[in-house]
Write the structure tokens for this entry.
Amino acid sequence: MLRASKLTVADGVFLWPGALDMKTQSDLVAEIFRKIEDAPFYRPVMPGSGKAFSVEETNFGPLGWISDRSGYRYEPAHPVTKRPWPSIPKLLLNLWDEATGYAAPPECCLVNLYRGPAKMGLHQDRDEAALGAPVLSVSLGEEAVFRIGVTSRKGPTRSVKLASGDVLTFGGPARLAYHGIDRVVAGTSRLIPGGGRINLTLRRITS
Ligand code: MD3
Ligand code: FE
């Protein structure tokens, strides 16, 4: 499945550009849109302030990452429908095995939808007990300007363009690196119905 060669972006960060071919990408998008009939995208809000995210989100898997006025956490059910999250697509479980070789399966597939000016500020992913496990990201649709730094907020950062079908993994020294999405480049793909970009992030939560 990982057609492309593996590039090292930084210590612990690996990129497979164009890992998923077009057919695999469109099958995956079709599966995502079937599953979101049961678990629709919603707009999370920031802890404390209650300010809305510009990104819309949903999850697949036994645990979903959510944000609301009380904080960030993992929950077994959708905050709006109260139903359990749909299962993680089999293709993504296979991709996790192939790309990470990690012994335990991912428990969360966070689905981020970027439309128009949506972006994601520089942050760390640190709500998981299993910080020894890597994180895997799949980009679909329009290109994104991804920023990756180091484990301190004020350290140096670099920009990497992420295109549809690209797969990235973050482990070891990169697991707690600051990262974010500066912007999405409109008009670079027609893969997503209604336009924009979808990112799938697979994570192990429990140790
Ligand atoms: C680097 N999402 O949901 S995925 C997130 O494209 C998130 O939607 C971005 O950051 C997106 O938390 C970036 C790439 C990513 C994911 C997890 C990481 C990069 C990471 C964890 C550690 C270091
Ligand atoms: Fe993140």
